[in-house]
Amino acid sequence: MKRRLTLIFILLFTLQFSAQKIFSADYQSQADVKVFVVKYESQADLKVYKVDYQSQDEGNDGKWFFVKYSSQADKKIYFVDYESQADLKIFFVKYQSQTGWKKKEKKQLMY
Q1: 58 domain-assigned
Q2: Neighbouring residues of 75: CB distance < 8 A, sequence distance ≥ 6
Q3: Containing domain of residue 79, as a range?
């Protein structure tokens, strides 16, 4: 029994603490979400930090790990040229601690 609880705890911990895996699609039709990078933090729906390792911090709060293949991704995004084309506006921050949602109603886009 004790061994099962330990295994369950490890699995939950592993699932909970990993960055969201993102694939940058080449074509808009391949994407789940169209993204526009804004110039100012105040314009963003989500503040994003690009992590170096998949295991860094939690998933859906703006810590993104970019994968090489679409099959590895939690979400596939496409960077659009114009703000009006975007489902989600993001701003890349310098530090992990700055990430987070500014517009909570857009949060469902990244689930």
Answers
A1: yes
A2: 20, 21, 22, 23, 32, 33, 110
A3: 18-110
Q: Are strands 100-101 and 46-50 parallel, antiparallel or unpaired?
A: antiparallel
Is the residue at 98 inside a domain? yes
Residue 98 pLDDT > 80: yes
Q: How confident is the model at residue 14 (pLDDT cuts 50, 70, 90)?
A: very low
Whether 5 is covered by a domain: the verdict is no
Beta strands 88-92 and 33-37: pairing type? parallel
53-to-29, 50, 65, 66, 105 alpha-carbon distances in Å: 27, 9, 7, 9, 28
* pTM assigned to the model: 0.81
The answer to whether residue 3 scores a pLDDT higher than 80 is no
Does 70 reside within a domain? yes
